[in-house]
Amino acid sequence: MPGQILVVGSSNTDMVVQTTKLPAPGETVLGGTFFMNPGGKGANQAVAAARLTGNVTFVAKVGTDIFGEQAVAGFRQEGINTTYIQSDPDHPSGVALINVDAAGENCITVAPGANAQLRPAETNPALASAETDALVLVQLEIPLDTVVHIIGEAATRGLRVILNPAPAQPLPDELFPNLFLITPNETEAELLTGIRVDDLSGAGQAAQKLHAMGVSNVIITLGSKGAYLSTGTQSQLIATPPVKAVDTTAAGDCFNGALAVALAEGQPLPDAIAFACKAASISVTRMGAQASMPRRNEVNE
């Protein structure tokens, strides 16, 4: 049995319009195709891990509305443990409005709803139930004080914590030494370190700064170029298989979920990253967030 993966984060319903180009401010673009999809960075990562045969428990907060009910039913269908998903009668479930253009680029607006009400103490039962070798995977679509609490508590219990610092925002210094691994993209790495990441040299400098801030291992995702790994003593670029992208929504979430699965299985970091790059490269060839997450046999092939 692979080790437990405890994902703590957001659950949204994505309302997506696929169109030829993204509208400029004040512009209306006609001719789009609309569909709805379950999303949210936490939920996306939980589903990605579950589809890749991970042993996943998801900790989140949803509204007592149709979006929340459908989301929880979907998680159960994916084989995710939903014991620690709470319902909030006072706030709606989170929604995201997403525009995707013909090149697969997107712009996203999120109304967090119940996600913004997940309190630090409400995560304690899940952390208390975590297996001794569990991995904890967290993002930044829930309140920052809750994120800081989870990371501190998990580290106190000796659990390995992966932080996907997205969406990009400044983080308190005390958070970094408690991380086993941080997985920013170029934009997030620059925001956290002040170092521009537009090539491998910049990635290396940003990684060293993150090590100096206390992080044990750093992975900077570089889109189609792959992922840069730094362990403090060695570094390498791990390439992504070349594919034609149709929608990059949730590619980073797919990467993080897959990475957690491989690490929970005991794979070394370079092998885990190669596995995650393969999974993410499949996800960008499909529309949607959770709908794009591949199954294990697809990645193995």
Structure notes:
The chain has 301 residues and is of the alpha/beta class. It has one domain: Ribokinase (UDP-N-acetylmuramoyl-L-alanine:D-glutamate ligase). Helix content is 32%, strand content 23%. The chain has helices at 41-51, 66-77, 124-129, 144-156, 186-193, 200-212, 251-264, 269-283, 296-300; strands at residues 4-8, 12-18, 33-39, 55-63, 85-88, 94-100, 106-111, 135-138, 160-163, 181-182, 217-221, 227-230, 235-238. A 9-stranded mixed beta sheet has the order 5-4-1-8-9-10-11-12-13, sandwiched between helices. Helix 4 (144-156) links the parallel strand 8 and strand 9 (160-163). Helix 1 crosses helix 7. The longest helix has 15 residues, at 269-283. The chain is globular. The chain starts with a strand and ends with a helix. The mean pLDDT is 94.
Query: Which class of secondary structure composition applies to the elements?
Result: alpha/beta
Q: Number of domains in the coordinates?
A: 1
By DSSP (H or I, 4+ residues per run), the number of helices equals 9
Estimated helix fraction: 25-40%
Report the strand count: 13
Quickly give the CATH architecture. Answer: 3-Layer(aba) Sandwich
Strand content: 15-25%
Rounded radius of gyration (Å):
18 Å
Q: CATH homologous superfamily name?
A: Ribokinase
Low-confidence stretches: none
Give me the side-by-side strand order of the main sheet: 5-4-1-8-9-10-11-12-13
Outline = globular
Oligomer: single chain
List the helices and strands in order. EEEHEHEEEHEHEEHHEEEHHH
* CATH third-tier fold name: UDP-N-acetylmuramoyl-L-alanine:D-glutamate ligase
CATH class: Alpha Beta
